[in-house]
Amino acid sequence: MNISYFAEFVALSESLNFSATASQLSISQPALSNHIQALEEELGVKLFERTRRSVALTKEGRLLLADARNLLDQYADMHRFSQKNLADNCIFTVGGWLESPIVMSQLATSVRRFHDASGVQLKMMSVQGYATNMAEELNSGKIDFIAAHRGTFPAESNEPLDCLPFCTDCFAIAVTSENPMAGKGETTMEDLAQLTFIHLTGPGFEAGWNQVVAACEEAGFTPRERPVFMESATETSMLDLADSECFVFSFGGLANGMFFAGRPDLTVVPVRSASFKVDLFYKEANLHPTLRQFVEFLKG
Predict the structure, then answer these.
(1) What whole-number distance in Å separates Cα of residue 25 and Cα of residue 35?
(2) Does 108 share its domain with 67?
(3) Left (φ > 0), alpha (ψ -120 to 50) or beta: where does 264 sit?
(4) Are residues 141 and 209 in the same domain?
(5) What's the CA gap between 40 and 52, in Å, rounded?
(6) In this protein, which residues make up the domain named HTH lysR-type (predicted)?
């Protein structure tokens, strides 16, 4: 049973004119006739008396009219409830740099503020994996957002992504206990000019390294570097540092103890004068309308 046939039946019952009803519904007159005939055959009753000059409801048609209107009202109510339920409980997926408590905290705060402002409850599902490997999934609509270092997905790529500035996460350095920086409560980029920086060259590290270089140059120097290949961020816990070297990472990572746990030979010092810039990448054309509202809210 096609619900649209009942809508056509009600419209025809009100106008009693096939041509006018077909025009109103933006369908052809033969299609309207076929739909009414199909409804009559399915119900086993004749709904209209038709002559060359007039169209009139039969007794059965008049009886059906009230029920058809009620059915359409119930369908409209159900559709509105379904759409509202979808809007009020929208699940979105996010991947990328989720090991940072700063990023996760900002995501949770943004969802809560959006709910307070709009009444819409978003539910977040995280997706594990390197941000650089997720561009295809973002373009295909399999995931909704990627939180990643600014510059992870260049704007000049073949399939450019939309993005918005999301949060910042202060630099920290890991140094040996013999390093001059080890005794400081905090330091600045200018203090690091004489050190050699560890440059991780594995997958997903380049955008972060570019931000480190930019911070050094802003402080007035070009960093000396020692390239080290690593497959993942978890391997940094095994990093060997000389006394003249430093490794820059996210200070927010300290919050869950994921960096350099159990390494008494290393000291972590916050760098308060510089931060990693984190963007939220997305493909606007793929987003659910509610998530587009969320993006506009974040742009604020």
Answers:
(1) 12
(2) no
(3) alpha
(4) no
(5) 19
(6) 1-58
CA angle in degrees (0–180, nearest 5) for 242-248-250: 140
Rg of the chain taking only CA atoms, in angstroms? 31
Q: Which amino acid is at 235?
A: E
Give tens-digit pLDDT for 263-283: 888 998 999 889 999 999 999
Structure-token match 């519904």, residue found: 25
Can you tell me the distance from the alpha carbon of 125 to that of 294, in angstroms, rounded to the nearest whole number? Answer: 15
Domain count, the chain: 3
Taking every pair of Cα atoms in the chain, the longest distance, rounded to a whole number of angstroms, is 103
The CATH number for 15's domain is 1.10.10.10
Angle of helix 289-299 versus helix 59-88 axis, rounded to 10: 40
Q: Which domain holds residue 55?
A: 3-86
Residue with tokens 């049973």: 1
Q: Kindly report the CATH number assigned to the domain that includes residue 118.
A: 3.40.190.10
Those residues whose C-beta lies under 8 Å from the C-beta of residue 105, and which sit 6 or more positions away, are: none
Backbone angle region of 262, left / alpha / beta, with phi > 0 → left and psi within -120 to 50 → alpha: left
Q: Give the strand pairing for 48-50 and 224-228.
A: unpaired
Q: How many CB atoms lie within 10 A of CB 290?
A: 18
Tell me the per-residue pLDDT of 28-58, one tens digit each, with 9 for 90 and over.
999 999 999 988 887 888 999 988 888 999 9
Q: Domain end: 31, 66, 86, which one?
A: 86
How confident is the model over 186-203, as pLDDT tens digits?
Answer: 999 999 999 999 999 987
Q: What are phi and psi of 37, to 5 degrees?
A: -65, -40
